[in-house]
Amino acid sequence: MKINRREVLAGIAASPALFIQQDAEKAAIDPTLYIPKAQLVEDRTLLHDFMDENPFVELVTTVPTLRITHIPVLLERTAGTYGRVFGHISRQNPQNRAFDGSHAAVLVFRGPHGYISPAWFAAKESVPTWNFAVVHASGRPRAITDKSRLHQMLGSLIDRFEKYQGSSYDFSKLPEAYVSSLLEGIVGFEMELESLEGKFKLGQNWSAADKETALARLREGGSREPSLYEFSTRFFSRLDRK
Question: Which pTM value belongs to this model?
Fold first, then answer.
């Protein structure tokens, strides 16, 4: 069968939208999280608030292999569709090879979590569960190669947390030579967010009575995660005993 090249090319020209759509589908970042409808949160302001309140994240990439790095990040809410995130990792960390603007990455923002006992509810046919809230922010990180931009980003990141601590520390007053040596040891990145996935598994589909009971029990406390002070104290004591 003889192929008429003119007809084939004419057909392609007549359907450019099909190829644009296919390219877009290839480029799109797949969902990273299973979210039942009852636990789906799409309010962008709420998600951004959550990200600002929980800025210590897991950076997950698959380059050069599956890698997870734990870092604080800075959110710029108004950039792009979903915002932009800034952070940095050690230059010795092979994960910085993913910062070329083409490899997908996900930042996992995790909030409070805790065990929910079935004994709290009136219905006998209940099972335990674990309540939590997370936001997965996906994009393609790109390295910040300009030294002045890297310096500015690092200063903004430090300033954000120093203000929270109420400290008098001022990064801008450090000697230039010292800061320059610091910058040589890190790789900064910016990542425009291409998707936000919010999963808040907090019992929002429970009855009003069960919600009230669960909140009362959670307020009472019980089993909880140790504070950083408590955990550090125990850890140092363990080291001293060796």
Answer: 0.86
